[in-house]
Amino acid sequence: MTDFLEAAKVLGVERREGRISSALQYLALLNRGLPVTSLERISNAIAPTDVHFKYRIVSKATLARLRSKRKLNSNQSVLISRLAGIWARALQVWKSAGSARDFLCRPHPLLEGKLPIDLVLENEIGARLVEDILGRLEHGSAV
């Protein structure tokens, strides 16, 4: 299954939006804006005990405004999709949610002691660095 389908599955959008069968359909969905429930799903998956984690993605005030619209904007949707893709990849590599969380939320030597989750939240390049480490771990070549 391709990355965008894995991210859509994690975010629960395939059930709401119908079958997503192409990257362009998924991109159109992101451009229209993901439902606010997608933010809740990814926050609960990555940080189930941290009720404030979602505010690292969307500020508390902005989230309060978005609840009435029930949709995130396209930039927020892309960020959440990036998180979902990395989360799906970490689950694939580590085989358990607890181990995937540990990897994302602990300093990593290949990232100069930074937390992988921080880099994923920062920008696409940070996410690619984390994805590279996950690929190396999967193939047995990461520290």
Draw up the topology in text.
Blueprint: H1 3-11, H2 13-17, H3 23-32, H4 36-46, H5 60-69, H6 74-94, H7 97-104, H8 116-122, H9 124-138
Helix pairs in contact: 1-6, 4-6, 6-7, 6-9, 8-9
The major β-sheet equals: none
Strand content: under 5%
Mean pLDDT level: 90
| Distinct helical segment count | 9
What structural class do helix, strand and pairing data support?
Answer: mainly alpha
Computed CA radius of gyration, to the nearest angstrom: 15 Å
Low-confidence stretches: none
**Number of extended strands:** 0
Distance between the terminal alpha carbons, to the nearest Å? 27 Å
Quaternary structure type: single chain
- H/E element sequence: HHHHHHHHH
> Helicity range of the residues?
55-70%
**Structural shape:** globular
Number of domains as seen in the coordinates: 1
Give your account of this protein's structure:
- The chain is mainly α and 143 residues long.
- The chain has one domain.
- Helices cover 67% and strands 0% of the residues.
- It is built from 9 helices and no strands.
- Helix 1 crosses helix 6.
- The longest helix has 21 residues.
- The chain is globular and about 45 Å long.
- It starts with a helix and ends in a 5-residue tail after the last helix.
